[in-house]
């Protein structure tokens, strides 16, 4: 029996690419100048799609792959996959939860500290030799602040635990109240934003959470408030965020994700109260390797008829 046909729709680390190529008959979407050519030549035999946070399996791709059995995402977020269609057609879906939780939560705290303590400006101050001409201006204390978290799932909880180490008060907004009396639950996002210093977006992107950060929420957070986005760019109405920052209606923003990656609104480039990262939440050598092993384990389990390691659908 020949190797199983697998379609890779996003670039992944070399280790994962090589392992997939060793174990399967791998088609890389970018090797085909026309997607239609790939689908005409191989669409009938592809049994698995591997994607990531920026490319998954939409309804058109799923329709074009009649033998598709599984979509495995090299990410925890699965907003690029048509989950309803997968459910309807009995196509399995896996992602890479847990292994990346620490890194993403670490990065949320890193964004907060970088922003509040103005680490990037301070570094430039030293490198430019300006320290010799006087001391740097005072910054903002993090310890003891109130953190509002949107989404108290794996990542939200990990952010909360870390923030507890900084003696922060934790409050949150999510679909359901959790069994955690230490954290204050707000059933209204506006209430949460009005009552915290730092608002962290840590929920999955769904139809309900698209643009969950809108003008009203930004205004509730206010000129002293700070927004941290380690979720998805589409959680935030980006033009509203940009105008709030330019007009001083929001205190600052630490962003790892954007609405139209890798495009970042250029109006933000000149602002010192903004920290901009290139979607590196899970981007450590250790975590990306663990994500790769999890993805490979899921595919192996599926094709051996064993239970999936991290089934979503
Ligand atoms: C990745 C992510 O950036 O897990 C997610 O949802 O956004 C990320 O870990 C990406 O999928 C890695 O290629």
From TrEMBL:
Gene3D superfamilies: NAD(P)-binding Rossmann-like Domain (3.40.50.720)
Keywords: NAD, NADP, Oxidoreductase
Enzyme class, UniProt record, top EC level: oxidoreductase
GO cellular component term of the entry, any: cytosol
GO BP: photorespiration
Record has NAD as a keyword: yes
Location of the D-isomer specific 2-hydroxyacid dehydrogenase catalytic domain: 8-310
GO molecular function annotations of the record: glyoxylate reductase (NADPH) activity; hydroxypyruvate reductase [NAD(P)H] activity; NAD binding
PROSITE patterns recorded: D_2_HYDROXYACID_DH_1
InterPro entries recorded: D-isomer_2-hydroxyacid_DH, D-isomer_2_OHA_DH_cat_dom, D-isomer_DH_CS1, D-isomer_DH_NAD-bd, NAD(P)-bd_dom_sf
E.C. code: 1.1.1.79
Residue ranges of every copy of the D-isomer specific 2-hydroxyacid dehydrogenase NAD-binding domain listed in the record: 110-281
Family affiliation: Belongs to the D-isomer specific 2-hydroxyacid dehydrogenase family.
The protein, known as: glyoxylate reductase (NADP(+))
Native organism: Medicago truncatula (Barrel medic)
């Amino acid at each position: 029996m020949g190797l199983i046909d697998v379609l890779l729709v996003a670039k992944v680390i070399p280790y994962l690419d090589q392992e997939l190529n060793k174990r399967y008959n791998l088609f890389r979407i970018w090797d085909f100048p026309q997607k239609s050519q790939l689908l005409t030549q191989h669409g009938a035999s592809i049994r698995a799609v591997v994607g990531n946070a920026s490319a998954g399996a939409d309804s058109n791709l799923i329709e074009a792959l009649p033998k598709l059995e599984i979509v495995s995402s090299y990410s925890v977020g699965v907003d690029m996959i048509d989950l309803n269609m997968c459910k309807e057609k009995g196509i399995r879906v896996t992602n890479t939860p847990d292994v990346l939780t620490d890194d993403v939560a670490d990065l949320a705290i890193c964004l907060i500290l970088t922003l509040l303590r103005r680490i990037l400006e301070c570094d430039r101050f030293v490198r430019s030799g300006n320290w010799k001409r006087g001391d740097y201006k005072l910054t903002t204390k993090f310890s003891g602040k109130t953190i509002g978290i949107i989404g108290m799932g794996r990542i939200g909880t990990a952010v909360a635990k870390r923030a507890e180490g900084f003696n922060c008060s934790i409050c949150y907004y999510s679909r359901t109240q959790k069994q955690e009396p230490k954290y204050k639950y707000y059933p209204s996002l506006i209430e949460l934003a009005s009552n915290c210093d730092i608002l962290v977006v840590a929920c999955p992107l769904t139809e309900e959470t698209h643009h969950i950060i809108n003008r009203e929420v930004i205004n509730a957070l206010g000129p002293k408030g700070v927004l941290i986005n380690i979720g998805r760019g589409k959680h935030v109405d980006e033009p509203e965020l940009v105008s709030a920052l330019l007009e001083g209606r929001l205190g600052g923003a630490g962003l790892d994700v954007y609405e139209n990656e890798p495009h970042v609104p250029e109006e933000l480039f000149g602002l010192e109260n903004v920290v901009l990262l290139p979607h590196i939440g899970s981007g450590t050598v250790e975590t990306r390797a663990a994500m790769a092993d999890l993805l490979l384990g899921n595919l192996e389990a599926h094709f051996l008829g064993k239970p999936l390691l991290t089934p979503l659908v």
